[in-house]
Amino acid sequence: MKSxxxxxxxxxxxVKPSGFPHLGNYLGAIRPAxxxxxxxxxxxxxxxDLHSLTTVRNAAEHREYIRGVALDFLAxxxxxxxxxxxxQSDLPEHAELSWILSCITPFGLMDRAHAxxxxxxxxxxxxxxxxxxxxVLMAADILLYQANIVPVGKDQKxxxxxxxxxxxxxxxxxxxxxxxxEPSIPEEIASIPGTDGTHKMSKSYKNTIExxxxxxxxxxxxxxxxxxxxxxxxxKDPDTDTVFKLYCLIATATEIENLRDKYLAGGFGYGEAKKxxxxxxxxxxxxxxxxxxxxxxxxxxxxxxxxxxxxxxxKFASQTLTTVKKKVGLLL
Length: 332
Ligand code: ADP
Ligand code: TRP
Prior knowledge:
Layout: E1 7-15, H1 23-35, E2 40-47, H2 59-75, E3 84-87, H3 93-102, H4 107-111, H5 114-121, H6 129-132, H7 134-143, E4 149-151, H8 157-174, E5 182-184, H9 215-223, H10 242-250, H11 253-265, H12 270-284, H13 286-297, H14 299-328
Parallel strand pairs: 1-2, 2-3, 4-5
Helix pairs in contact: 2-13, 3-7, 3-14, 7-8, 9-12, 10-12
The structure holds adenosine-5'-diphosphate (ADP) and tryptophan.
């Protein structure tokens, strides 16, 4: 079968290395991002390790998250032949363009950004300048590569719009320079429920099931899913149960039907259902988990991928920065 021709538009996206991925992240963000590698001829994925500096305060932890994100993506199927994978901090161009852009950024535009307003509303202890100007650095990330399309979650849409506003302002002030980027928000993926049965799965609710955690940890997280208190003999409603909902996300149609029948028939306890889910979960991620173990054994390979990625990215980034410097009069 002939595959669909790839889009010639350029795609850029970043992932902030600030934690370990869970099922919600995978289905809501990682898998859709990886799928795009087959649709675009030019795709840049980077680890936004200058952005994570706004929150991570421990160097050893930071290193682990940075490597971790790259390993997660590679293990889950990102192909570095199709996508340029690199670290933001390997290219000083990001910070340099960020400063230049900050000099044309209206203070009010930052002050109105949702993420900043949320931080202020939550009375975040010691809000920093870095957090305030976070969207300017993100604009630099996008504009350096003259990106057309920026896949992001809903929460980041406004930041891409800010990048577009800054590109437009720069073009009007100094002459046509930047491509105007557009956000691409993946189709609404139903919010994956957390193990507490109440909130969406999220690190901030501590109700997650990790993807690469130790098997015992994953089993414990799954065995801890909240259910109602129906006795083993009683028939159960699959459609309101979190164990069943999670099973539906990773099992085949026949497996789902079989489990539905067991719920409706009674004589089948939640403990059994959880064991079934845990086994399925470990089977579903078995290949990725094994691949991540292999990748971890040879970090030299990862460093090579990131170095090659940085080299490729540099060609684009330095070209744009030179143009920008000419436009603003920094190149004499
Ligand atoms: P967390 O809520 O655990 O801190 P992040 O805010 O880092 O997760 O989310 C990263 C991306 O993962 C989000 O942009 C979102 O698209 C996706 N995501 C996170 N939690 C879920 C969920 N429960 N269901 C679907 N997608 C999710
Ligand atoms: N701010 C994004 C987040 O928190 C990560 C990010 C940084 C990004 N730079 C970017 C995403 C550029 C897309 C494009 O998830």
